[in-house]
Amino acid sequence: MIAHDSPEAAVFHDFVIMGYYSALFRDTATKSMNVKNSDFSASRSLETIFREHLENTVNCGDALDQLFRNLPDPETHINQVKHLEEIGDKLTAEAYRALELLNYSEQIRITEELVKRLDDIIDGINNTARLIDICQPRQIENAAHDILSNLISMIIRLQQEFARYPDNDSANLRICCKELKKNEEYADLVYHEWRKKQRRVLVLSLIEENNWTEILGVLEQTTDSVYHAALLLERLVRYRHNNEKNGNFIAHDC
User: Fold this and answer.
1) Which of 51, 92, 112, 220 could share a disulfide with 119, CB 3.0–4.6 Å?
2) Is the pLDDT of residue 82 over 70?
């Protein structure tokens, strides 16, 4: 019989308490794992999220094009661009949640960068619409039409490659990246030539020039995001192919 106030009783008490919390921790960890596995099975694949994201981004670009064509009555189109950008934000959050369910690796890091670039594209479109709302230009600049048309064609080209993901052909992806690089350089050239024209020939008022400089700058930067998204997709596919050649496990959803 152990006395209640003896050292042996204190050790026995600590042992019982430790056993209780150990069992509680195992139970909590098991429940957490069950919830995590449930979330994983319920989550959509990254392939599905990417494709939906890019389709939504194309629609957002089309809405911005309608805004450019209807500057006297912009509110409906500005709201539509914002609505589509909010859908893009939800898809971005869904993609990050899907990645959190996988073990972190170089593959996951590249995919996270890719998700961010896709989000940057639709953010750039929305930021352009917001600038239109703030600046309220009287008429569209031809350079804006040129860069936006170029941007939408780039997004559609990127969308075609994502439709094949994760079974992309590396050679086709390299061709895609080269095409998008030329598109990005064209947008940069249009922006640069427009700036030169404004400096050398007084075409617009100083306020209008500053407004369009900012608007065109955002559009041009968005073409950069499309090009870099393609580069990241190429890196991701190359990483998968290299690991498959080496017999390494590749997460199906990444």
Assistant:
1) 92
2) yes
